[in-house]
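Dear Dr. H.,

I hope your travels went smoothly. While you were away I took the liberty of generating a structure for the chain from your last submission, since the lab meeting agenda had it listed for discussion. I wanted you to have the full record in hand beforehand rather than looking at slides cold. The sequence, exactly as received, is reproduced here:
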Amino acid sequence: MKVDTLISNVQVFNSFLKVFEWKNVAILNGKFFSTGIDTLTDLKPSGVIDAKGSYMIPGLIDIHMHIESSMVPPAIFSKAGLSHGITTVVADAHEMVNVFGVTGMDAFMKEETEMDIFYAIPSSVPSTTLALETTGGFMGIKEVQQLLNHPKVIALGEAMNFDGIVNDSDSLIRQILHTVQQEKPFMPIEGHVPLVSGIELAKFMYQGITADHTQQSPQSIYEKISSGMFVELQHKSITKENIAAIVQNHFYEYCAIVTDDIMADELLNGHLNKNVQLAIEAGLPIEQAIYMATYTPARRMGFQDRGAIVSGFKADFILLEDPEKMEVTAVYKAGKLVHEKGNEIGYPEMKPNFPDYFYSSVHCEKAEQSDFQIRAEGSSAVCNVIHISEVGTFTECIQKELPIKEGYLDWESSGLALIVVMERYGKNGNKAYGLVENALTEKGAIGTTWAHDHHNLMVMGTSIADLIVAQNKLVEIQGGYLTVQNEQVVSCCPLLIGGIISDAPIQVIGQQLSEVRQSMVDLGYHNSNVIMSFSTLSLPVSPAIKITDKGMFDVHSHCLIPLLEEIR
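The corresponding predicted structure, in token form, is as follows:
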């Protein structure tokens, strides 16, 4: 029998035995035809690849991620992701939808990519309610139903509004969940449920949400999995303690390794493969790590044609020199070579193209000195302050007493940073103010329009003069990331498309973002991921206190927290 390709002298990962086996692999019409020792003599291949003893594993499958985190469109992301062995993703495009509504997701789904990109319907746009944050787009029942039958849509994206899910039977998120369960009863429903346990977790799960990808602990992993919830491990959850909990309890069937957010500078060096490597280093057996990045995620999302090297499945696979290090030698998609070690990440043949208004979406007045002055009467004020953790994105609310001078809060001499979120869609002109501890220690400012998830304009700094420069520059470039010191822009990563992505080559965006990252560190920002820490200060579903254009909020209760608690 004739086949297209025969791969010989290769150690093939058996997903069902979780071992590597010496086999020959035949490929026909983009699918695996057969695997076996005697395949070489039985078939007549058009081409033979001598793998020279390499390890062969299925293409990696990332079932919880946001393409916009890489700050490039799908066509550019596809090239970069394939270079690291990722052949299938399930993307929740809620960043684009927060800015442009369903039109943003449609624009993504229209892009042609070599990688298989499926989508989860963004369930939470806004992430909470319009009373708590202003967004450019909106996802209601009509918008969800519009997307339910699209061939690329296979899941409901992370449900985040905890209060609406648990406490409000009439909430929009409850209605969305009910609609999906009625019209697509077999569709996986993703969740976002950090630091929730006991009866509160039961209430959350009762609404039909069956997975969580947020920051975990050994205790949360055990409780969630033993309660029937599927757990997706992103980078910050891949610790020795968490991996030990999975290994000791044999939880391999109920976990997948995911990325959630991989930024442009990180994408240059790896993607899901790096998280698999990290899990192995943390103590996860190699075979189980591969299983949790291929077959387990495929099963979770209902794929019947990928995730293993067996007859009839898509011929998506990777050749590795050493599976422990997850260093990719070659990547094949549907049996065709798409990347080899040492090659540059390519750029799409057709430059990504979006509607004209996608390139001019920051409708915000340029700030002046008065926009960073906080009026107050009295001699001092007890202020509610956002305290940033040095690891992860969690925060806590603390109180500090600041002096009041000449009718203004003297925050510049307090050792704290001022954070301001300005509505950028031209809807209401909202401005909200907060103070942040454990942020910048040097004089300067940072700014972005990549502010989870509403993506309003957000600046934070220790100097009014630098804040003005940062805000004005963001308006001029129509969004991105930047840092300012001595009233000069030190680093800048323009994101012209919606203020969140760029059509520049990933190498350019990666370098620019790397410079922003280093500049933030130079300004005294200390966190395991300074970009993500800053960008999620505006995310009102990430514990414990965050800020939107409507003000500071307690994430759990959604109660407004005043900046000035008491005037003295």
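Two observations you may find useful: Residues 506-522 form the longest helix (17 residues). The mean pLDDT is 97.

With kind regards,
E. W.
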